[in-house]
Amino acid sequence: MTEQTNLPTDVPNAGRVYDYVLGGHHNFEADRQAAGFMISLLPSTPKWVRMLRQFIREAVYQLTEEGFDKFLDLGSGLPTADHIHSLAPQAKVIYVDKDPVTVAYGMEILAGNPNARYIEADTRDVDAILNSPLLQEMFGDDRKIAIGYNAMSCFFTDEENQKILQALYDWVAPGSKLFATFETKDPALTTPNVEQFVGMFNQMGEHYQFTTLAEAQEFVKPWQADKNGYKPLAQWLEVEEQFTPEDKEGVDLEFYGVILEKK
Fold first, then answer.
1. Per residue, what are the HEC states of the chain?
2. FRET pair for 22, CA 20 to 30 Å: which of 36, 72, 76, 87?
């Protein structure tokens, strides 16, 4: 990735760190150094990150098969080749990210694609996103849509998650769905490496917290899990045999995926 004028690239960004761990090329030296250090702290990080992206793929395939052709994706990061617009090329997709560098390069990647657009916004300001003229332009009056909320809850407090998810629930039409992941651990357990890992996000200017499955199930209300329920990502993807006790990093680390619906 080449640097664009007046856009800061010397501070690591969570989305670009994620891109680097996935093997992408849309990142800078600061992102690569941060990623390397974080992986040294929690060596299972690449496994979890790859599963997060694979869950998005599986969820998008399921939702397109159900007839969804409009997607609003929050905290999108960069729209690399395996993101929603590539998985569902006939669908209308709106990506959202708060980082101006990510949005600038995202728009560059999407140039010429009439079905995919970007909003630069902080998901905490969910009302601004839902009131954006771009939603009307892309989705018209149709509010039966699919929403991505992946690798997001860890960056917000429970109260912020509840506010965001309630606003989304109120805005969408019945029948809409939300595909989400939650990063969990045993709240009674921690290690120095886990504390340093969380501290790296703090240095990037990001709040970061692990939750429990019970806490996540509470703050997503009134969204309801579909028939698949909440499952560890390894079960979603049928790769349980690829994980070892060491991948739990001494704190019972687990990533859950779910497709929620508004009935």
1. CCCCCCCCCCCCCHHHHHHHHCCCCCCCHHHHHHHHHHHHHCCCHHHHHHHHHHHHHHHHHHHHHCCCCEEEECCCCCCCCCCHHHHCCCCEEEEEECCHHHHHHHHHHHCCCCCEEEEECCCCCHHHHHCCHHHHHHHCCCCCCEEEECCCHHHCCHHHHHHHHHHHHHHCCCCCEEEEEEEECCCCCCCHHHHHHHHHHHHCCCCCCCECHHHHHHHCCCCEECCCCCEEHHHHCCCHHHCCHHHHCCCCCEEEEEEEECC
2. 72
